[in-house]
Amino acid sequence: MVPAISSGVVVLPKGFRFFVFLFLLSCLVFIKEAVSDVLEDYDIAGDVVFDGNIRLMMQDKVENAHEVSLVVNLPRYLHDMKEFVLIVDNNPIQQVMRIEPHRRIEKVGTNIRMERTSPVRVAVLDSSNVWRVVTKKVFVTTPGGCSAPSGGEALNMNDIGRVLVNLYERRVGAMRIKTKVLHPMDTGLVLDNDGNVIPEYYIDRMEFSDDSGLIAIIETFAALSANPMVMLDLPDRSQNVRINMSDSKGYIFRGECRKRWNNGGHCGNERKYRE
To answer: Would residue 129 be called left, alpha or beta, if left means φ above 0 and alpha means ψ between -120 and 50 degrees?
Structure first.
């Protein structure tokens, strides 16, 4: 049967429209099940809703797949979240980080690896135990963020574990913590010049605290970029912030920043310890 044409618009027969509807419905079910499987793999199950008020800010198209920056701006009703999970569907290492907050957090930032074009997902567990999810599809023009050499200079062994910490006053009474650690974050998927696999080696835990106790515990994975950066925006500020990190070889790294807000300016120091 040939579709009818009326005023330049193609009109499909009723029976054919029904099959198109079924096809589109099956596609939607398949996509929903695929998304559900990815989330459930990382214990994101039960009540799950998609929340467009969570702002996942990153480029639509990236060239450097080894270092992709992103910022997640949380709505006010999620500042007291119970958990935060970052996932890249098409990465061989899908889970990027998992945050257990011990204070209110307004914004999270970091830099990640992307193997190829993929949905990037943020799942936030709210105070009512509902998972709120936002997704953004990011196109990667040069794949291989997890499996190809970055082309950058290799870190000197003596520099691995150097922690830099900065505190910034965002507005009166509010603070930004920004930390960077020098670390290769090897994925275990890259070959060296001799064709041998470079073993997996990455920061696996970050613990943020101040004089009042814990701020957040972050479980991290090799899908973070080399020399990873993590940023947390808090509604309150502290005089002294300490960050303890550990890696997959059992090394411990520590950084600290002591800030006297009434003197103005920002502080930043480098301290490295191994135990």
So the answer is: left
The answer to whether 180 and 255 have CB atoms below 8 angstroms apart is no
- Topology, domain 46-271: Immunoglobulin-like (2.60.40)
Structure tokens at 20: 């198109």
Band of the pLDDT at 28, cuts 50, 70, 90?
Answer: very low
pLDDT of residue 147: 96
Tokens found for residue 244: 């303890």
How many other C-beta atoms can be found within 10 angstroms of the C-beta atom of residue 87?
24
Phi, psi values for residue 77, rounded to 5°? -70, -5
Give all strands (DSSP E) within 8-127, no chain letters. Answer: 9-11, 48-50, 55-57, 61-62, 68-73, 83-88, 95-101, 107-112, 118-125
Provide the pLDDT for residue 260.
Answer: 64
Alpha-carbon distances, residue 208 vs 76, 136, 193, 243 (angstroms): 22, 28, 37, 5
Cα dihedral 248, 88, 36, 56 in deg (nearest 10): 120
The ranges assigned to domains in the chain are: 4-35, 46-271
d(CA 219, CA 203): 9
Average pLDDT, the chain: 86
Q: Which residues contact 263 (CB under 8 A, 6 or more apart)?
A: none
State how far the Cα of 22 lies from the Cα of 30, in Å rounded to an integer.
12
**Could you report the per-residue pLDDT of 80-134, keeping only the tens digit for each?**
999 999 999 999 999 999 999 999 999 999 999 999 999 999 999 999 999 999 9
pLDDT in tens, 249-274: 999 999 988 876 655 444 555 555 55
